[in-house]
Structure formats: structure tokens, C-alpha cells
Amino acid sequence: MKKVDKNNMINMILLIAGVICIITGIIIDFRLMRIRGLKDIHIWAGYIMAMGMIIHVVYHKMWITNMLRRVGISKKE
Question: Which of 61, 62, 71, 77 is the most exposed, having the fewest neighbouring CB atoms within 10 Å of its CB?
Fold first, then answer.
């Protein structure tokens, strides 16, 4: 799988999990509907999003390091 395809897949997983978290969070918070298991879906979407963020940061570690170096935060040359 190409690097671009992996990146797009990670981004899509993050987008879908984020949208699910937002929608279920609004429904739960404002008590718009009583759906059995909605809280579990909300929690699991959050776990998936957290794991996706970790993978995303690890995947872009070199870019992050280069940007930190560019703005002078990282002293490693």
C-alpha cells in the first residue's frame, strides 16, 4: 500500500470516528433519543479515534520533528 493511501485511510478512520463521537455526544448530552447502547458506541468511537490519533502522530513523526526544528523548538540537527 502506498504512503498516500495509508495516510488517506488513517484520515478517513479519524473522520468517521470523530463524526460518530460528535453525533452520539450531542444525542446523549441533549437526550434527543433513547437508543440502547448509544453510550457504548460513543465510547468505542472515542477509543478508535484516540488510537487513530496515536497512529497519525507516529506516522507523521518526521514531519512533526522537521516543523519543530524549523520553528526552533527542537534543537536536534
Answer: 77
